[in-house]
User: Which sequence fits this backbone?
């Protein structure tokens, strides 16, 4: 299978502190790749480098065939991203958020309308399309944020601890969305500190103090 993400000796320092320390791994196209570790292990710093929001101190990484240091804008055009903190605008409605992000991703009005309608139908949000996002339950917000990150059909989607704070049933439903996304050929890179969620991934990298301590299948 083709490689969607390639990481070699990737390092990030903040002064004397090394947040990410010479990590190496590849992620195959269509793979669900888990990044497991406790809070402060370096997961979010690593993901911010991979999506072009933070420059590496050393090493290199390629995402969708582009170097994250030299071609950060090309990387951002080809990925979806759901941040650790909730990424939708709570004072806008569901439809307004879809339209806003569709425009940011460069979709025209027709594509936004078509894909937005499909998204709302898939999530069964028809009765809440004109509701402010802040009125939705947390689980619905998380699933909506994930779906909006896929609105422009990216080849790779990065999810930074997407199920934090939601109940176990909603977490399972969220992972069903992840499986469906991967089945369509999209690469899913997901960070988590839940051990049971790591078991849902094809392969897992375990981060400890900024380094990859283990890498392989859950088994």
Assistant:
């Amino acid at each position: 299978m083709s490689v969607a993400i390639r990481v070699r000796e990737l390092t990030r320092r903040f002064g004397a502190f090394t947040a990410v320390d010479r990590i190496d791994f590849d992620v195959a196209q269509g793979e669900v790749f888990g990044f497991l570790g406790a809070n402060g292990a370096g997961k979010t710093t690593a993901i911010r480098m991979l999506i072009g929001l933070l420059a590496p101190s050393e090493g290199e990484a390629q995402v969708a065939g582009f170097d994250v240091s030299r071609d950060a804008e090309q990387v951002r055009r080809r990925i979806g991203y759901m941040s650790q903190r909730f990424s939708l605008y709570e004072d806008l409605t569901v439809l307004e958020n879809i339209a806003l992000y569709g425009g940011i991703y460069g979709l025209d009005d027709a594509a936004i309308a078509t894909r937005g309608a499909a998204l709302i139908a898939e999530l069964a949000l028809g009765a809440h399309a004109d509701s402010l996002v802040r009125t939705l339950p947390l689980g619905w917000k998380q699933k909506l944020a994930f779906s909006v990150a896929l609105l422009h059909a990216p080849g790779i989607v990065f999810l930074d601890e997407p199920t934090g704070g939601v109940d176990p049933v909603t977490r399972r439903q969220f992972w069903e969305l992840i499986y469906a996304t991967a089945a369509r050929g999209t690469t899913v890179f997901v960070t988590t500190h839940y051990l049971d969620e790591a078991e849902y991934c094809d392969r897992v990298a375990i981060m400890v103090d900024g380094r990859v301590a283990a890498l392989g299948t859950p088994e």
Strands lie at 3-14, 17-28, 32-36, 58-63, 66-67, 79-82, 156-160, 187-192, 203-208, 211-216.
